[in-house]
């Protein structure tokens, strides 16, 4: 068993600290920047986010396939981290730059820069996530590595979420446009330094034979013919979610039924009748652990996304102190770092499956308890919120290490490994869950008549905010716990699979 050195775990963690300067930090403020500083309407910004969310479904999968088929002297995944970093830093700055343009040209500029940012993030983060799966063949070491990773992620998010408003005020001195731009210059510099550390300190140890039966160009062309499997279900879900009428419902049923029939037909084909891309898809669709994790990624992101999306409203209107939001975010993220670092120890005690279920149930119960917190009781809010967040931080830590287990299972079962594709689908479903969570917050508030520009609507919307901080996210936690009951891989099975794969690879090298 390969034990990863401490310095390498820290080096890997710096990569997610860098990525979360963008994902957990900068993107958390992008909506308010677009509407309050850049000058976009809320409707235009909402459509922008929806379009980019749909494109993520394509780019994540494509990047996973490209990374799986990359071969350099630095490995499959590490080079992409290095190559993409300058573009990620550049578009991070450009997204928060306010050029002197007309309203229509500003919208075009926002589309170009935001799509550029999400594309650069995909090219960077999909290989970064997959790197965990090839740094070690040990499932226990992956759990430890995932704990370090998310401690870094929460630290990176803390840096931006906790201090960006103060930095904007300091650098802008009354000019928010300049404040955001100069703040992003600073964060972009930090991002580049942290990513270089990750590239320089990590090592890919798990190597597999690359399928040379077709080249990358042919595989991507083949993927383009199978894109409806990815795009149409996501489009149908998005339309049904946003419009919730009979026409979108009918479209959803037709699309999902058709896709199910086509997938069933594809799975029944023999391997020789399928292209490389289709075999990858079949490997995933017949991988029960991966399918369950896919659902878990969506449910846990809905759980966490709804809570985080409601906090600003809750403190402004329920608590009556919107300046307390920053302190609450800092408290949550500090507890999250502790939760991520404790995951490996707790997983060894309980096992990953049981720990996932326990974390979902305890965090869900503590979150539901927000429903009975007296209005303005800061002490109860911080105690409940931080306690729930400790267990919530365990969820993504387990999710990404268990994706590595599902990659092992796929290789053990099918003799083929697509680490990048498995992790890209995992990151994509988390992005989707986060997007739907943000939309659900707005849908619930709208159902209670909330209008941020009309103070008369606030009182009637307070029960909706209370539900969004309690029972609504808790329901997704409980659903996730129920789904995880069916997860088939135990610690003993993971160990057996790992041992068999190491022997296979050793035999392959010997021949």
From TrEMBL:
<feature type="transmembrane region" description="Helical">
    <location>
        <begin position="288"/>
        <end position="306"/>
    </location>
</feature>
<feature type="transmembrane region" description="Helical">
    <location>
        <begin position="111"/>
        <end position="134"/>
    </location>
</feature>
<protein>
    <submittedName>
        <fullName>MFS transporter</fullName>
    </submittedName>
</protein>
<feature type="transmembrane region" description="Helical">
    <location>
        <begin position="354"/>
        <end position="372"/>
    </location>
</feature>
<feature type="transmembrane region" description="Helical">
    <location>
        <begin position="80"/>
        <end position="99"/>
    </location>
</feature>
<dbReference type="Pfam" id="PF13347">
    <property type="entry name" value="MFS_2"/>
</dbReference>
<feature type="transmembrane region" description="Helical">
    <location>
        <begin position="326"/>
        <end position="347"/>
    </location>
</feature>
<feature type="transmembrane region" description="Helical">
    <location>
        <begin position="146"/>
        <end position="164"/>
    </location>
</feature>
<feature type="transmembrane region" description="Helical">
    <location>
        <begin position="378"/>
        <end position="400"/>
    </location>
</feature>
<dbReference type="InterPro" id="IPR039672">
    <property type="entry name" value="MFS_2"/>
</dbReference>
<comment type="similarity">
    <text>Belongs to the sodium:galactoside symporter (TC 2.A.2) family.</text>
</comment>
<keyword id="KW-1133">Transmembrane helix</keyword>
<dbReference type="InterPro" id="IPR036259">
    <property type="entry name" value="MFS_trans_sf"/>
</dbReference>
<feature type="transmembrane region" description="Helical">
    <location>
        <begin position="26"/>
        <end position="52"/>
    </location>
</feature>
<keyword id="KW-0472">Membrane</keyword>
<feature type="transmembrane region" description="Helical">
    <location>
        <begin position="223"/>
        <end position="243"/>
    </location>
</feature>
<feature type="transmembrane region" description="Helical">
    <location>
        <begin position="421"/>
        <end position="448"/>
    </location>
</feature>
<feature type="transmembrane region" description="Helical">
    <location>
        <begin position="184"/>
        <end position="202"/>
    </location>
</feature>
<keyword id="KW-0812">Transmembrane</keyword>
<feature type="transmembrane region" description="Helical">
    <location>
        <begin position="468"/>
        <end position="487"/>
    </location>
</feature>
<feature type="transmembrane region" description="Helical">
    <location>
        <begin position="249"/>
        <end position="267"/>
    </location>
</feature>
